UniProtKB/TrEMBL annotation:
GO terms for molecular function: hydrolase activity. It holds the Pfam family Abhydrolase_6. This is Alpha/beta fold hydrolase. Residues 72-271 form the AB hydrolase-1 domain. SUPFAM superfamilies: alpha/beta-Hydrolases (SSF53474). Keywords: Hydrolase. The keyword GTP-binding does not apply.
Amino acid sequence: MTVQPDSLTETPKAQADRLFEVFCTPEPLTEAAQKGMARVASRLSAALALRIPFQDGELQAYRFVGNGRGSVVLLHGWTGQAAVMTAFVEPLLAAGFDVLALDFPAHGRSDGERLHVALGVAALHALHAVTGPWHGVIAHSFGGAVAFAALSGLVGDLPPLSYGRLVLIAAPCSMPRVFETFARRHDLSPEATQSLKDHVKRLTGNPVEAFMGDAILRQHPVPTLVLHAPEDQEVLFLSAESFVSAGPHVSLHPLPGLGHRRILYAKETVQAATAFMET
């Protein structure tokens, strides 16, 4: 039997350390999610499967070969995997692009038990070393946070990655807000909340406040398309509006009625993302 710590005697730092492990550990998929994943996973059979050395294990990636127009990388969100991004594959192939889809650490067939933005950025570097350069990146939710963090050069000694175009789908703009929302959900004190945020400085060398998507896109003006449902309750539309404040190189295309996950499979999303990659 697992004994739960006594929140009355646990120090704020110990509480934050324990909950950071929770924060970085993907939840098991529900039975319904597993069935949904199985339905789309068959689309990966047409790809070349790549095993990429990463830390103490390997990453799983998939390559669909187009007509050499350039490579577009697909990045899934939290508890997702490469399979959930495959609605973009056929349209991108038809446009002449090669397509790469990655399972983040601790997701899909990639090794690992934990994931956070710094690990995600390191995984992108490992993929880029084998498959780069890239024409563009299409990223959903957590994958979007990894995509803009990878542009920044703020993660340890990893240099900024470069790609010509970026599509952010239902992506969070403010990593401080992500941590604060998690802290409120777990009733953390201000001291424990700060200890939770301090893990970002330990992992990246920079405070969590540095990981603001609008500021990063202002400093690294990659042409960016933001696709977001106004009623999204998992990542609020406020994030989409914040991204656009980075400058005229960022455009917003609201997609009402599609929520946080259905947006990935909508024809409007796929068409808008593909057209943006072609321009």
